[in-house]
Amino acid sequence: MKALSMSVNGLRLNERIQSMAEIGEIGLTGVCRLAHSPEDKEGVLQVKKWMDSIGLVTTIDHFGNLIGRMNGIANDEPVLMIGSHIDSQPYGGKYDGALGVLGALEVLQTLREQNIEPKRPIVLVAFADEEGSRFNKGLFGVRGMLGKLEEGELDRRDKNGMTRREALIEFGCDPEKFHESIYDPARIAAFLELHIEQGPVLESKNEPIGIVTGISGPLWMTVEIEGVAGHAGSVPMGMRQDALVGAAKVIVKLNELAQEIPKAPTVSTVGSLQVFPDSRNIIPEKVTFTVDLRDVDEARRDKIEYVLRQEIEKIANEHSLTYTISEDTRSEPRFCNENILHIMKEESEKMGLTPPELMSGPFHDSLEMSYVCDYGMIFVRSKDGISHNPKEYSSPEDIALGAELLYKTVYRMACQ
User: Fold this and answer.
1) What class does CATH assign to 217-330?
2) Where do the annotations place Zn(2+) 2 binding (predicted)?
């Protein structure tokens, strides 16, 4: 059953989503707004205009985060923070991240239109580089804001050789002034995020929205395997040190390890692979590929990692190869606040909805926020479970329901 009456303007929200999709548009439905790119900057400035139009106090910090503040009655109180991201995958859809930013904007505009002044300030953030696809390490903006960047992050290069430092400067940020953009965690009461599910569960249950109970812990690694290049026609098979053969065996083994326990939510992916020298008649000398391993059970995930490392050693010895493994991201599963879950359940029931509870396999800005404050998430049904793909789609009706639940949750947490 759908809500009988809506506070938010679903039509306006969906029109803004379609408008945002024109920035970095690829094909009929796809989007490419890589972090810190000109398309990303154009998107940020568009959202800033919308924020300014409803009277938010806006700024773009030196990490590239767009921040809009709605003051409250007690402005010294810790803020309720809401939002998501607007950067995308290189072959992405129009809803991932953008829904969370524009849905939060709709919530604040609805409060304005109803002349509701929150008791505590509400801060909307469009976090920079959640995806991590350009520099192979995500959640940059939120980690930067919280003072949790790691050594060497600004030296990471994209596929064109540009460093993150160079990209940030080109975007208009000043890495030398990062300290000016650190947000005191003590000033954050809680964080809420609206997001598409990016999976098939809600559709399989015929439910428009879901309530997230937690986020799986991602482990990202980069593996480089090195052998010896040689002529493809003259080096006997048994004498080769073929880096690609070794990499292929590792990739297959990773796939098998992730499926060893039936019905476990473990997932593994190798989504990027580079071969050198990349010629049809040269035995590959070096292969670099990424590993993405996720699970709600951290111990199970780490056990798979341990076995995978042993297998890499075994395969390298078998083919006389050398290898290096670098860790890009490691996070533990993080669970949503019970009180926020309770509020969402109560408000859903008032709307005539019975959203299922589910874990999130993908990570989100909420993952990093969970280390400094309570958090809650709302999922919106994804057609066919597709995401990170131009075919990504959520219906206007489902989106409106998700935004309405976000509005009611924000009202309970910041206005009552």
Assistant:
1) alpha beta
2) 96, 131, 388
